[in-house]
Amino acid sequence: MPAKSKAQQKAAGAALSAKRGDQKPSELGGAAKSMYKSMSKEELKKMASTKRKGKPRKVTKK
Length: 62
Description:
By secondary structure, the protein is an all-alpha fold. The chain has one domain. About 50% of the residues lie in helices and about 0% in strands. It contains three helices and no strands. The longest helix has 15 residues, at about 5-20. It starts with 5 loop residues before the first helix and ends in a 14-residue tail after the last helix. The model has no long low-confidence stretch (mean pLDDT about 90).
């Protein structure tokens, strides 16, 4: 599942970093913390590796 915005991609990268042990899970906040708890390492890897070019900064709910 690719990221839909730059913010989502960045949060997935932070959560993936914590899953790998590079960062403490207690340092995560907001969406990254939620992603860390609910997604597998493979799902986070797919979302974090999404190209940022052409993505909106943030996606708002309608």
